Structure formats: structure tokens, C-alpha cells
Amino acid sequence: MTIRKIVIIEILKTAAGSSKACLSSSIVVVVVVVVVVVVVVVVVIVIVVVVVVVVVVVVVVVVVVVMVVRY
């Protein structure tokens, strides 16, 4: 009876330890996912800003060229 209790206690301890390990690894996974999402969002924002700047520069150049050609 006591041996069986000891075995059950050891199994419970092992289960608790593995669940803690799972919890910490899931926390790591969540952190990694959050970091990846933030990096992707920043990259998308940078790409959008670059595209907007390029479009504005092209429009300004075209307007200046049209003005120069007209006058």
C-alpha cells in the first residue's frame, strides 16, 4: 500500500513538473509569436511608408517636369 502511494506521488510530481515545463515552453512560444508579429507589422509599416514616399516623389517630379515643359 505504501509503495503504491509513493509511486502515485512520484507520478503526480512528474506530471506537475512536465506541466510546468509545458507552461514555460508555451510562454516561450507565445513570446516568439508576439515578437514575430511585431517584426512583421514593423516591416509592413516601413514598406508602406517607403511606397508612399516613392509615390509622392514621383508625383512631385512629374508635376515639376510638366510645369517645366509647359512653360
UniProtKB/TrEMBL annotation:
The chain crosses the membrane at residues 21-41, 47-69. It comes from the Eukaryota. Keywords: Membrane, Transmembrane, Transmembrane helix. This is ABC transmembrane type-1 domain-containing protein. It comes from Elysia marginata.
